[in-house]
Amino acid sequence: MNTKNLLSIAALGSLMVGAAATAQTTFSLAHGSPAKHVITKEFVEPWMTCVTNAAGKDVEFKYFPSGQLASLKELLPALSRGVADVAPVPIGYYSDKMPLNGVSMLPGLGATSEEIVTAYSKSIKTPELTKEFKVNGIVPIAVMAFPPYQIVSVSKEIKTPEQFNGKVVRSAGGAMDLVIKSLGGSPAAISIGDTYVALQRGTADATISALSSVDGYKLQELAKTISTNGSFGTFVNVMSIREDKWNQMNDSMKQVFLDCGQKVQLQAAQNLDKAGAGLTKKFSDAGVEMFAFSPEQINVISGKLSVVYQDWVTRLNGRGLPAETVLSTYKSNF
What we know:
By secondary structure, this protein is α/β, with parallel strands linked by helices. The protein has twelve helices and eleven strands. The longest helix has 35 residues.
């Protein structure tokens, strides 16, 4: 073989090595939240920064925020199709593909974001919940959960259990539909990004949401009343990576991803919990009536919400899924 051919083979080999390195260390990260939203500022960007700082030149992110690559409802398909490598998967939007993981959205479980994140992080490692990630070709890295959701009413006041009757309430789907129905309302499947317009046009009378999301989507501009001590479930996002991409990574890089996930999920939960009081004052100053349900009203609401657990279990058991086991495990982690 002549020298020219040897040099050509060597050059080709170098290109192949370079391509392999790029495939392992360059990650496209997408999400669908606005630039100033809490998911962006407290979860996605801090995690990405943590990984970059820890890995240095060994990792590069191609960042596609605010729905540039995929909207909130397109994030799981984007991962499955290989359009994105990493994304925060909004569990509530995929109750058809990840129904058992919807246990994290049930009401009355956990009084703070930190409690919910801690419990769900343990549960997500169980075979039943892990299987749903694997079936969709993704690996969970970190969890973000909002503090318990509150009722935000716009066109028609909702300040008592009875006032839920007949109201159309925006829902993210899954367990949230059950919550709204148990209280006498009618759930309307509307993405969080479309909620402002839906409330403005009267498509929905109210929404169940975290105070940070209310602020992130400026819903306080429309709100008449917002509760402060309800526990109407929550919404969970799971930072996830394509399994194919994960399998290409070396162990040290995997550990960086996981370590940063643990750090950021706790930090985000604590910051969300601390932000609650400030947002209550901010909304009140803007003219929104912030109110607390009385102890008697909380008892009535809790009684109505108790049927949600059984409905959730019955519905998923009917699909041949081990819902009762999952719920029992999840409760035991609090």
